Amino acid sequence: MSESLEQLEQRIKTIEERNARVEAEKAWEVSVFRKATIAVMTYVVASVVLIWIGSWQPFLSALIPTIGFILSVQSLPFIKRWWISRRRT
């Protein structure tokens, strides 16, 4: 009985540790810091590539993929509501 109780306590501790990791990873996925970091990296990489290929106005042109990324990570609540309503039927 005692061993069984200890096993249950260990399982609960393992589950709580896993839940904490999952919550931290989810927080990272939706964080503004993550999105901003990727947007800056996208801008820098696009700028470097555009300079390398000799593009006209590479710093302005690099805004296009950066804005595309920023738009892609928005939740778009009106589209989300429509999608959810379609899934329920």
Write the layout of secondary structure elements.
Blueprint: H1 2-30, H2 32-52, H3 58-61, H4 63-72, H5 77-88
Question: Could you say which overall geometry the principal axes of the C-alpha atoms support?
Answer: elongated
Contiguous uncertain segments of 5+ residues = none
- Helix percent reads over 70%
Order of helices and strands: HHHHH
Number of helices: 5
User: SS-based structural class?
Assistant: mainly alpha
N-to-C CA distance:
49 Å
Tell me the total number of β-strands: 0
Residues in β-strands, percent: under 5%
Query: Major β-sheet, in short?
Result: none
What would you note in describing this structure?
The chain is mainly α and 89 residues long. The protein has two domains: 1-30; 32-89, no CATH class. 85% of the residues lie in helices and 0% in strands. The chain has helices at 2-30, 32-52, 58-61, 63-72, 77-88. Helix 2 (32-52) packs antiparallel against helix 4 (63-72). The protein is elongated and about 75 Å long.
Could you name the key traits of this structure?
mainly alpha, 5 helices, 89 residues, elongated
Summarize this entry quickly.
This protein has 89 residues and is mostly helical. The chain has helices spanning 2-30, 32-52, 58-61, 63-72, 77-88. It has 2 domains: 1-30; 32-89, no CATH class.
